[in-house]
Amino acid sequence: HITPEKFYVEACDDGADDVLAIDRVSTEVTLTVKKDVPPSAVTRPIYGILGTIRLVAGTYLIVITKKKKVGEIFSHAIWKATDFDILSYKKTMLHLTDIQLQDNKVFLSMLSHVLSMDGFYFSTTYDLTHTLQRLANTSPEFQEMSLLER
């Protein structure tokens, strides 16, 4: 969900009530609940957050807008991110000079080019950041941790 003040990222899991709120001015990230999302927010589906990047015009949020299932590991789906959106935290570019606007446009173009290359994979249920060998040698406590906690 997008408002002029915040980005709200809502999980689609059954029973999930938590919503990630990202303040577009302070860049502060907090957890809130679904009822705090304003009804006026523009809503659109995404499949994940790739991250943030700071360019000339300010901070941008990079989100995955399309995905393709490429396989499974132990019945865990592995996805390839195939399309992205680069969302500006700033509502306007009026604070930039013409040269800064041009530089920012070039950097956005370069970023879009990198994102269009193959190689962005993810799983919402399996840890792709560790090898199978390393996962086999971890403690039961580590394996019980959520992917976020790891």
TrEMBL record:
InterPro entries: SAC_dom. Keywords: Membrane, Transmembrane, Transmembrane helix. Its EC number is 3.1.3.64. Residues 47-140 form the SAC domain. The chain crosses the membrane at residues 46-64. It catalyses: a 1,2-diacyl-sn-glycero-3-phospho-(1D-myo-inositol-3-phosphate) + H2O = a 1,2-diacyl-sn-glycero-3-phospho-(1D-myo-inositol) + phosphate; a 1,2-diacyl-sn-glycero-3-phospho-(1D-myo-inositol 4-phosphate) + H2O = a 1,2-diacyl-sn-glycero-3-phospho-(1D-myo-inositol) + phosphate. GO terms for molecular function: phosphatidylinositol-3-phosphate phosphatase activity; phosphatidylinositol-4-phosphate phosphatase activity. GO terms for biological process: phosphatidylinositol dephosphorylation. This is Phosphatidylinositol-3-phosphatase SAC1. GO terms for cellular component: endoplasmic reticulum. The keyword tRNA-binding does not apply.
